[in-house]
């Protein structure tokens, strides 16, 4: 997980990346977290890690919980399909 040392979020308030709720201040916090992700050199690695680890909360790799949910479902379906072969 050496990639985390290169992440733009190092030094940022971790709470920014874990907003509580989906309305009001949480929307602004999610957007602010995504702004940090936009300038991050390891966004793709972060998103890949979050998907592999099944991260269902927070902003990871420039994606919100809602944006990652379908990605996680698709990944789980692929894993189940690969096991049944």
Largest sheet composition: none
As a percent range, the share of helical residues equals 40-55%
Given as residue ranges, the uncertain stretches (5+ residues, pLDDT < 50) are none
User: What is the number of strand segments?
Assistant: 0
Rg: 14 Å
Give the helices and strands as they follow along the chain. Answer: HHH
| Mean pLDDT figure | 94
In the residues, how many domains can be counted?
1
- Count of alpha/pi helices: 3
Q: What coarse outline follows from CA principal-axis ratios?
A: flat
Please give the alpha-carbon distance between the first and last residues.
31 Å
Report the β-strand fraction as a percent range. under 5%
Q: Which class of secondary structure composition applies to the elements? A: mainly alpha
């Amino acid at each position: 997980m050496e990639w985390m040392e290169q992440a733009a979020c190092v030094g940022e308030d971790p709470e920014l990346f874990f907003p509580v709720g989906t309305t009001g201040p949480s929307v602004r916090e999610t957007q602010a977290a995504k702004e940090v992700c936009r300038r991050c050199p390891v966004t793709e690695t972060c998103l890949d890690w979050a998907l592999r680890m099944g991260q269902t909360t927070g902003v990871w790799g420039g994606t919100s919980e809602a944006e990652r949910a379908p990605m996680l479902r698709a990944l789980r379906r692929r894993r189940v399909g690969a096991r049944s072969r």
